[in-house]
Write a structure and sequence with these properties.
By secondary structure, the chain is an alpha+beta fold. Helices cover 43% and strands 13% of the residues. The protein contains 19 helices and 17 strands. Strand 8 and strand 9 form a beta hairpin. The longest helix has 16 residues.
């Protein structure tokens, strides 16, 4: 039986997560008071006198340069997000968000931020439930796939003019708005950090022993390494699709782009004629089915989570792992001061035979934006406070923090990021994400959850051998026509 190495860090995270889930106060609560709500989430009220966050990188208290703006509003501002204290321990974007949030509260003591904080998967479920009940919080993180529907329903504020009037507008990366745009209007300020959803982490020492100086550029060469690693008693690549979204976000969005190209994706998003049943996308699904049946992945890939799968890589039970930037953050923290930390390198997903639409692409972008409930506009002073928070949570205070501490980027550009103070692991990953490779769209940042729920469920069934690619694309197209 394959062993699963549970690091000390993971054990600590699990303990904290259990305390948090039961409504107990998190050890990293930063002076907030925390109470469990009726739906099991947490509400935190920032205490301005103690609102100071601890950076994940060095354990030292850190502050950001949040603007000292004058706000007329005095009262509560409800904020819902998923940057839990646990997640901030291994995620630069979440650490930066929490740090700016705490510092914003410090300079605006008359505004009481009432936070509803929960894990990412729980957040997605709860925010959709609140939207369906027309009960969204004042400020929240908007996922791209919900933009068009919630804008059409009048649930979210049109922020086009707000963005153009931002004191930081000249520094914004305008290319990040696309997932949060509908009818040429922008409904959020892209938030957190832009990161890849598709990266191969590989043990360069193991692949060197298998005869490869770098990770193979084609899947045919990956298949050539399978027998060698099988003889070593390990898997060639670890992957986890137990929650069903992983095959879409961390694999198919990139592999699909190699077969279809970006024009097809944009046409699908904009309803300009592309269809899931188009041959190029069907070919991407056939390839995906075949490669996961080839034996290069762990046999239980469809039953375990990405968290479980990355433990196979950490423990040495797999020579490579495919995941997203969130997995890299965790693996980096876990492997620190080990030999595997030094030999871990990064590569794009290899090129499938017959795919000619794009090369060396990886699904990347900003998947969430700070959005505002349209009802907040009824109170101009409260709206000004919400807008000010949105500016700071995505502006230079946040950008400079994550750039200098984590070598990460967000909406606001930071020129000439100095990488010299970072180790080779961090420099390599920065270059992978922002320099060496080409971006492509993250599928489930667009369209609607009703479509992706159907496709993701069917993809899992397809990989179990229960559905053909032809049936999967037909079902996806019907869901698209019925729900988008």
């Amino acid at each position: 039986m394959k062993k699963k190495f549970l690091s000390v860090l993971l054990a600590g995270v699990m303990v904290v997560a259990m305390l948090t889930g039961c409504g107990g106060k998190s050890p990293a609560s930063n002076g907030n008071t925390t109470a469990e709500t009726t739906d099991g989430t947490q509400t935190q009220t920032q205490d301005a006198a103690t609102a100071e966050n601890t950076g994940a990188g060095d354990g030292a208290a850190t502050k950001t340069d949040v603007a000292q703006t004058d706000l007329a509003y005095k009262g509560e501002l409800e904020l819902m997000h998923f940057s839990t204290s646990e997640e901030s321990e291994g995620n630069g974007g979440s650490d930066g968000f929490r740090t700016v949030l705490a510092d914003w509260q410090t300079v605006h003591p008359d505004v009481k931020l009432v936070e509803r904080v929960m894990a990412n998967d729980d957040y997605k479920t709860q925010i959709a439930t609140l939207a369906a009940a027309d009960d969204l919080p004042d400020v929240f993180l908007l996922q791209g796939m919900n933009t068009k529907a919630w804008a059409a329903q009048g649930l979210i504020l049109d922020m086009t003019d707000i963005i153009s009037k931002s004191p930081y507008a000249a520094q914004y990366d305008d290319s990040t708005y696309y997932p949060f745009t509908s009818e040429d209007k922008i409904y959020g300020l892209p938030a957190l950090t832009g990161g890849t959803c598709a990266v191969v982490l590989y043990d360069s020492a193991k692949w060197k022993e298998a005869g490869f100086d770098t990770f193979p550029e084609t899947w045919d060469d990956v298949l050539k390494a399978k027998d060698y690693f099988a003889d070593q008693g390990i898997d060639t690549i670890a992957f986890g699709n137990g929650s069903k979204w992983q095959i879409n976000s961390t694999f198919l969005a990139t592999i699909g782009d190699r077969f279809t190209g970006s024009d097809w994706t944009h046409s699908l998003i904009e309803k300009k004629g592309a269809a899931f049943t188009d041959q190029s996308f069907a070919d991407a699904l056939k390839f995906t089915k075949d490669i996961f049946a080839s034996g290069i992945f762990n046999a239980d890939f469809n039953a375990i989570s990405n968290e479980d799968a990355r433990e196979y890589y950490i423990s040495g039970d797999a020579a490579a792992y495919i995941g997203g930037n969130w997995d890299v953050s965790y693996i980096q923290a876990t492997l620190k001061d080990t030999d595997l930390y030094d030999t871990t390198k990064f590569a794009v997903l290899p090129q499938p035979a017959g795919a000619t639409a794009s090369y060396k692409t990886h699904a990347t972008g900003l998947g969430y934006a700070v959005a505002i409930n349209s009802d907040v506009a009824d109170d101009p002073d409260k709206l000004a406070a919400a807008v000010d928070f949105a500016y700071e949570a995505t502006g230079p205070a946040f950008a400079n923090y994550v750039a200098t501490k984590y070598a990460l980027g967000g909406l606001t550009k930071v020129e000439n990021v100095d990488l010299s103070g970072f180790d080779q692991f961090t420099q390599d990953f920065y270059n992978y994400q922002y320099v060496d490779n080409k971006p492509c769209e993250i599928y489930d940042s667009y369209i609607s959850s009703a479509v992706w729920d159907v496709l993701n469920t069917d993809l899992q069934s397809m990989l179990n051998g229960e559905l053909t690619p032809e049936k999967v694309v037909a079902n996806a197209q019907k869901a698209y026509e019925d729900n988008y």
